[in-house]
Amino acid sequence: MKQVQADVVVIGATPGGIGAAIAAARRGRKTALIEPSPYIGGLMAGGLGVTDIHSLDAAGSLFMEFVGKVLRHYTDTYGPDSEQVVHCRRGLRFEPSVARKLFRELTDAEPLLEVVLRHEPVSVRMEGNALTSVAVRPVSGEGDGLVYTARVFIDATYEGDLAAMAGVPYSLGRESRDEWNEEHAGVIYQNFRTKQFLPGSTGEADHRIQAYNFRLCLTKNPDNRVPFRKPAGYNREDYASLIEDVAEGRVKGFSEVCNTILIPNGKTDTNNHHYCLCSTDLPEENRDYAEGDRETRERFVRRLREYTQGLLWFLQNDEELPDWFREDSLQWGFAADEFQETGHFPPQMYIREARRIHGEYVFTENDARLAPGKGRTHIHHDSIATGDYGIDSHATRKRHGVNRNATLEGLMTVGRLQDIYQIPYGVIVPLRVDRLLVPVAVSASHIGFGTIRMEPNWMQIGFAAGVAADVSLSTGAEVRDVDIDELQDRLLEDRQMITYFADSKPGEAFNMAAQYFGSKGMIADGYQAGLDRKLTVSEASGWITSARMLSGGKKLPCLPVSDRFVPAGEDMAPRTISEELHPRDYWEERPLLSRKMAVRWQNAAANALGVPAPALVRSGTGLVTRGEFLSDLYAMLKAARRNRRGGSV
C-alpha cells in the first residue's frame, strides 16, 4: 500500500468531519478527509433540508458560515425578496443539491485539504495506546489501498468505525433511569400528541437502537415530479395497519404519514411523521447495523430503501385505501432535479444513533436541562460548543401491545424541558486510545445523545476537534491533554459559541470574555450576562478569586481593600482610622467599583503577570461595567498564557 503522511486525518465527510477538516486545514495543517461514499456532506447533503436547531443565536463558527452561504445562494440566485429566500428561513432550510454544492465550495477553498472519496478504513496501527496510522482501500475493491500516518486522527463517521477499530470502548442501546439518574431513560411509551407517558414505561435498560430512515426530497410540482415506483421487494403487510388508521381517522392524508416540510423551490424535506405509527422509520430491523460488516449494512440499507419506496407506492395505489386518500397521495413524487444519479432517492441513510464512545465525560439528559436552583444548564469548564435542540428519540420497536394505536415504544420528546447547553471537550476524547478525537459518535447516554446528535451540533463539535488537533500539534501535547484555555481562546477568535447569553452575541463588545468566563462558572446564574451593568466590589473580588484558578491567573493579586489611599509620594495625613467607618459599613454604602480602584488593581495585576496593562477600564469614564472588567481580565490572562508559551496564539 502507498504510504501517505498528513498532519490530521479525518475519517467521514459528514458535516462534523467537514468541520474538523476545514478547521485543521485553515490552521496550516496538511489534512486528509476520507469518505467511503461518492459524496460529502452526510445527511445535510442527503435530504436533511430542515436544520435541527432551535435558534441561530446558539450557534457559531463554521455552521454559521454555512448558513450564511445558503442565504447568499438564494438571495443571489432569486433576489432578496423572492419566495426562495423566504422559504430558506435565514439559511436554515435548503435543497440537497444546494447543500452538496456549498459543502464542496468549502472544501475546495482549502489548498491543504485533500478529499478522498470511495475509500473506507480497513485496519489501524497502534503503538501502545496511540493510534499512528490507518489503512484505507477503495470501496469497489479495485485498485491499491493507502496507509495514512498522522499525528492526530478524527473519527467523524456516524457509526464510530475508526474508534472501534482502534479499541475505544463504546455503548449501544439504552441505559436505565438509574445509571445516570436520567428521568426519561430506558423503556418508555409516550403519546406524542399529548406528551403523556403511558403504562409500560419502566425505564429499564436494553440494547435497542432508535430507528433509522431516509430524508426524502419530494414535490407536488408536476413539472419537476418523478412518480413513485413499486420496488422489487414490495411487502404489503409492512403497511397494512395504515388501512385501519385511515378508516378510524387517525391518519387524514399523505402528509400525516410522511412529514412533508417545505424547503425552497416547492420541495420538501420529508421525514418520519411522529403522529403516525407506520411511517418512514423502520424500528427493530437496524439492530445489527452499527457493528455489522459492509454486507450486513448494505443489506439493511437495501431493506430500508425498499421499505420506504413500498410505503410511498402503497399510499398511492393500495385499493383498500379510500379514493380521496390515494388522490391526495398521487399529488406527490420525487423531485426530478435532486439525487439524479441515484434514481432521485437519497444515497445517505439517516443514522440517528449507533456506537457511542466511552469518553472522558459522559453527556446525559441532565446536562441539557436547567441545573437545579440555577437559571441555566450545568456549566462545563471545558466547553467547546453549545447546543439547542429538544431531547428526543425515535421508536425502538414496531406497533405492539396495549399501546399499539397510541404510540411506538421508544418514541419520545421532552423538548420543553431542554435549554441551551454547553458541550464539554471530554465527550470527544475517548478512553484508552490517544491521538484520536471522536466528534460525532460522542460519549453520551442514549437520552443525552438525543439532543447532541443534531448536525449543527456535530458540525460545531467537529470544528472544535479540528482546532484541538492544531493545538495538539503546535504544543506537542496529546489531544486529551491540550490546554483547554488555549483551545477556547482559539475557538472564540473563530466565533465559536462556547457559552450562550441572551444579551450578548459573538462579535459584540465583551462577548469573548463573557463566553470564556461563563464556561468557568463566573457568570452562572442565568442566560443574562449583564455586561452593561455597573460592577460591584463584591463581584470583582469573587471574579479575581475564581480567575486565580484559571490558566495564566495564578499570580493575580487581591482587589485593594480600600479606595481611600493616595499615591506614593503624597502625604496621607491627617487621617484617623478610629474615626472612619468600619470597612463592612463603608462597602455597604459604596458597593460599586470605582474606576480609580479598578485601575490600581489592574496595574498591580499586570505587573504580577508580566503583561501590559489593558486599556478598556483605564480609558473609560464613570463607574466600571461588568463587561469592561471581564474583557480586561480576559486580555491579561490570554497575554499571560501567550508569554508562558513563548509566542502568540
Task: Walk me through the topology.
Elements (H helix, E strand, L loop, with lengths): L1 E4 L2 E4 L3 H12 L4 E5 L25 H18 L4 H5 L8 H13 L4 E5 L1 E9 L2 E9 L7 E4 L2 E4 L5 H5 L4 E2 L5 H4 L35 E4 L5 E2 L14 H7 L10 E6 L3 E6 L21 H24 L5 H7 L3 E3 L20 E2 L25 E5 L4 E2 L18 E2 L7 E4 L11 E2 L8 H7 L2 H21 L8 H10 L17 H8 L18 H11 L35 H7 L5 H15 L6 H4 L6 H20 L4
Parallel strand pairs: 1-7, 2-3, 2-8, 3-4, 8-20
Antiparallel strand pairs: 5-6, 6-7, 9-15, 10-13, 10-14, 11-14, 12-13, 16-19, 17-18
Radius of gyration: 28 Å
The largest sheet, given as strand count, sense and whether it forms a barrel, is:
5 strands, parallel
Task: Give the termini distance in whole angstroms.
Answer: 38 Å
Number of strands: 20
Question: Percent of residues in helical segments?
Answer: 25-40%
Structural class: alpha/beta
Binned strand content: 5-15%
**Major β-sheet strand ordering:** 4-3-2-8-20
The residue ranges in which pLDDT falls below 50 over 5 or more consecutive positions are none
Mean pLDDT: 96
- Number of helices, counting only DSSP H or I runs of 4 residues or more: 18
Taken from the alpha-carbon principal axes, the silhouette is: globular
Could you characterize what this model shows?
By secondary structure, the chain is α/β, with parallel strands linked by helices. The protein contains 18 helices and 20 strands. A 5-stranded parallel sheet has the order 4-3-2-8-20. Strands 11-14-10-13-12 form a 5-stranded antiparallel sheet, with no helix packed on it. The protein has a 4-stranded mixed sheet with strand order 1-7-6-5. A hairpin with a 3-residue loop joins strand 12 and strand 13. Helix 2 packs across helix 4, helix 13 crosses helix 18 and helix 16 packs parallel to helix 18. The chain starts with a strand and ends with a helix.
